[in-house]
Amino acid sequence: MPRVSKARNPDRALAELSEVVEGRYKTALKIFDYQDELTQEAIQAIADRMKISTTGVVQINDRPIKLPPETIEKNTFFLAVEIITNLALMGVRIANYQFNPRICGYCRRSIVKKAIKRQKRR
């Protein structure tokens, strides 16, 4: 379910959105960096296509607000990585996609080394 800002001030809501996008971007970058060059090119091609298609306008308090280009760039990059990862979860492999062993494929949270060691003992 999408996160809905409780902020009444459009600037505050935009700041919250930028914060969420930044966190998602950092996770996507970790997954991206784990991929080989061919897979990185595929991810970048998807992100570029989405950037072309986006208006970059969101509704905040029923007012259209134009997103900064950096936010659009980071969000489309995240979405491209998310698409490739979700396809891999469904058994569709794009290029040479590999799951990053330090990030959960389902929830995208970091897996700490202790949890990995605990699983090996079982």
Please outline what is shown here:
By secondary structure, this protein is mostly helical. It has four helices and two strands.
Plain-language structure description:
The protein is mainly alpha-helical and 122 residues long. The chain has one domain (10-121). Helices cover 58% and strands 7% of the residues. The protein is built from four helices and two strands, in the order H-H-E-E-H-H. It has helices at residues 10-33, 37-53, 69-89, 113-121; strands at residues 57-60, 63-66. The chain has a two-stranded antiparallel sheet with strand order 1-2.
Features of this protein?
about 120 residues; mainly alpha; two-stranded antiparallel ribbon; 4 helices
Which helices and strands occur, and which strands form pairs?
Elements: H1 10-33, H2 37-53, E1 57-60, E2 63-66, H3 69-89, H4 113-121
Antiparallel strand pairs: 1-2
Helix pairs in contact: 1-3, 2-3
Side-by-side strand order of the widest sheet: 1-2
How does the overall form come out from the CA principal axes? globular
End-to-end CA span? 35 Å
Low-confidence residue ranges: none
Q: Provide the β-strand percentage band.
A: 5-15%
Number of helices: 4
Most strands sheet = 2 strands, antiparallel
> SS-based structural class?
mainly alpha
Total domains:
1
What is the typical, i.e. mean, pLDDT?
A: 86
What sequence of helices (H) and strands (E) makes up the elements? HHEEHH
Helical content stands at 55-70%
Provide the gyration radius in Å: 17 Å
The beta-strand count equals 2
